[in-house]
Amino acid sequence: MDRTTVGDTGLLDTLQHEVALFARRAEQTRLGGVGQVRNSMDRAAYLLLNRLDKEGPMGVKALAASMGIDSSTVTRQVAPLVDTGLVKRTSHPDDGRAVVLQLSPRGQARLEEVRSSRRQLMAELTQDWEPEEREVFCALLTRFNGALSARMSAHGVPGPEAPPAS
């Protein structure tokens, strides 16, 4: 029998509890509770910078659509990134009235610094794992996030971001 059926609340209770702990610890880590504060970055900022890095310059509407959030949220979240010089606003090459957002050289450097710090943390946390265990964990976490995104989408709730393209 599948251990995750409705009748087996024990495993599902453990799963929901571990996901809640993971979310709390991930947030504490981001805030500098583990590692160096200088290498932490707001989740929204990280996701925006990462998306601009992966997909290149784009307008607010396109960025919002690619991340599954509304344009007003992107506008609000990108403002401090522009103010700190991590993102540049430029005119669209075909329509000077439209604004295009792109990573600045400073934003690219900062993003790589944070990525490097996060890679180091992931390496430390999984140092005693076999390579296959890391691969399985990544595959299952990706699948779990995909299921969450699909559920949110089915209920009309915009998701924070689609999984990155491989």
How does this model look, in words?
There is one protein chain. This protein is mainly alpha-helical. 61% of the residues lie in helices and 6% in strands. The chain has six helices and two strands; from the N terminus they run ααααββαα. A two-stranded antiparallel ribbon has the order 1-2. A hairpin with a 7-residue loop joins strand 1 (87-91) and strand 2 (99-103). Helix 2 crosses helix 5 (105-125) and helix 3 (60-67) crosses helix 4 (71-83). The two termini are 34 Å apart.
Provide a compact summary of the structure.
The protein has 166 residues and is mainly α.
Helix content: 55-70%
Distance between the termini: 34 Å
Secondary structure category: mainly alpha
| pLDDT averaged residue by residue | 84
The rounded Rg comes to 19 Å
Q: What sequence of helices (H) and strands (E) makes up the elements?
A: HHHHEEHH
Q: How many H/I helices?
A: 6
Shape: globular
| Main sheet overview | 2 strands, antiparallel
Low-confidence stretches: 161-166
If strands are numbered along the chain, what order do they take across the biggest sheet? 1-2
Report strand %: 5-15%
Quaternary class:
single chain
**Can you count the beta strands?**
2
Q: What characteristics describe this protein?
A:
single chain, 166 residues, mainly alpha, two-stranded antiparallel sheet, 6 helices, 6% strand, disordered C terminus
